[in-house]
Design a protein that fits this description.
2 domains, 17 helices, mainly alpha
């Protein structure tokens, strides 16, 4: 795995961490300024807009796949055709979505919400801004896909960071300077999204060298739909499966147990930033490469991810319970920590499955990956129901772990890469995670458990370097640089 990929992984990881940090800092200010009820409505609004991401129809990923191939072969005309076809398709579906959210939001607010008349009036005034937000988001995804397709991740993450700051700070400033109501905050948020979209679009045009506007091409649009449709199916099945555990827990055990489950789950899913940074980096590169070279990079990436992610998983397992006790109290920590430890291993498996999934998708076979989700969803629902009915919270966590293992095994088999070495490496790292579970279970004293976890994480890092030639090369290069600096 070349140094360019590692550099891009670091850039993408920074781009994923920064928005999370900004959100954590600004949320308390929003709640103090707007109040709990108004902030809750805003949170629901942006969640609703997130659901409308299905209107992208997989076009941004399809555009990224096609642009990466054209950009690698210096085919500027193909880049331009794909870019404008995806732009107009997403603008059209976004405009339709805007009309739907305007009319549907009015009906929902009038008949299905339990808010004060004053707040309901504010929602009505804010609906036009929500309608504008949908097409803005849709075309922004195309711009992002174009930049990432050219592997210009520094430009993308710079724009994303600027956009995050604008989106978080402009509405806050507008509420403070003008009025702390929904229409002011949402208008400022849409203006921030517009400014961010303009910056991102200008960067995409510069990266691809596009100087004129063109209309969509029928053949290009058809190819994008063929690829994007399967990507959309995969996204929808994943979205449903990711929320199914909480929904079934609420129906089967009640809201209290959803809290016990969701608090550690939300913490654990933050770990996804590490494999997500790798996957974001790999997709355009694998799309542009031939199959043999793509297989080689995917296998190296799995080894790299195991070496980096396993020590993080070990640390998360041993510190989860003491952190939850300090953060949310002993009751939630007692119920949530055992669940969270199992979910950490599930996240670890999902990260590896994501690498083989994007290998399959990038090599023009997204249908195979989507079918896995379609087959998996009813099986997961059945196992989840059985687990919750028999074992409660641990049963739900075990079902999620089985789903992650199913993804890992099936996608590795479908990827057709040489799997024996990869499976041996996976089981070796999994044994370290199992040891971390035993430490967290058998050592009730937090200091002893954390100390043992540090030793175990260091042992895992040493083992990874000793058994992986690629990592040994990185270690030698790092030691050589350090010695050179000392000599100088």
């Amino acid at each position: 795995m070349d140094k360019g990929i590692l550099r891009n992984v670091a850039i993408n990881l920074f781009g994923l961490v920064m928005p999370t940090f900004v959100s954590l800092v600004t949320v308390p200010s929003y709640i103090r300024l707007l109040g709990v009820e108004r902030y809750g409505v805003i949170a629901l609004v942006w969640t609703l807009i997130g659901y409308f991401s299905v209107l992208d129809l997989g076009m941004s990923m399809a555009a990224q796949n096609q642009i990466s191939k054209a950009y690698a072969s210096n085919d500027a005309d193909a880049c331009e055709r794909v870019f404008w076809s995806a732009f107009w398709l997403n603008f059209t579906t976004g405009a339709i979505g805007g009309l739907l959210i305007y009319s549907g939001g009015a009906l929902y607010t009038a008949y299905f919400t339990h808010i004060t008349p004053e707040l309901r009036h504010e929602v009505y005034l804010a609906l036009p801004w929500l309608a504008v937000a949908i097409p803005l988001a849709n075309v922004s995804w195309v711009f992002a896909g174009a930049i990432n397709g050219a592997e210009r991740f520094g430009i993308y993450n710079t724009n994303q960071t600027i956009g995050t700051f604008l989106f978080q700070l402009l509405p806050l400033g507008a509420a403070w300077a003008f009025a702390p109501n929904l229409q002011t905050v949402l208008a400022a948020a849409v203006f921030a999204r517009f400014a961010a979209a303009v910056l991102l679009g200008r960067s995409a045009l510069r990266v691809l060298g596009i100087r004129k506007m063109r209309g969509p091409r029928l053949d290009t649009s058809k190819a994008l739909f063929n690829f994007g449709g399967w990507m959309l199916i995969a996204s929808i099945t994943t979205m449903i499966a990711d929320s199914l555990d909480r929904m079934m827990l609420g129906a089967g055990l009640g809201a209290r147990f959803v809290t016990y489950y969701t608090v550690p789950q939300n913490l654990v899913t933050r770990l996804n930033m590490v494999p997500n940074a790798l996957v974001r980096t790999l997709f355009p590169r694998l799309s542009a490469l031939g199959r043999e070279h793509a297989d080689e990079i995917a296998a190296q990436s799995l080894q790299f991810l195991n070496a980096v992610f396993t020590p993080i998983g070990i640390g998360a397992i041993v510190v989860l319970q003491p952190f939850l006790q300090m953060w949310v109290g002993p009751v939630i920590a007692e119920h949530g920590a055992p669940v969270g430890r199992v979910l950490i291993i599930a996240v670890w498996l999902v990260g590896q499955a994501s690498v083989t999934r994007i290998l399959i998708q990038s090599q023009n076979n997204p249908a195979a990956a989507a079918r896995v989700g379609l087959v998996e969803l009813p099986l997961f629902a059945g196992i989840l129901w059985l687990g919750i009915a028999r074992f409660g919270l641990p049963g739900a966590a075990a079902a999620v772990l089985l789903r992650a293992l199913f993804d890992y095994v099936v996608l590795l088999w479908l990827s057709r890469i040489h799997s024996r070495t990869i499976i041996v490496d996976m089981f070796a790292h999994l044994s370290f995670l199992a040891a971390a579970l035993a430490i967290a279970w058998w050592l009730p004293d937090a200091l002893y458990a954390i100390g043992a976890g540090v030793v175990l994480a260091l042992a895992n890092a040493v083992w990874s370097v000793a058994t992986t030639p690629m990592l040994r090369g990185y270690a030698r290069s790092l030691l050589f640089r350090l010695n050179s600096r000392k000599s100088a």
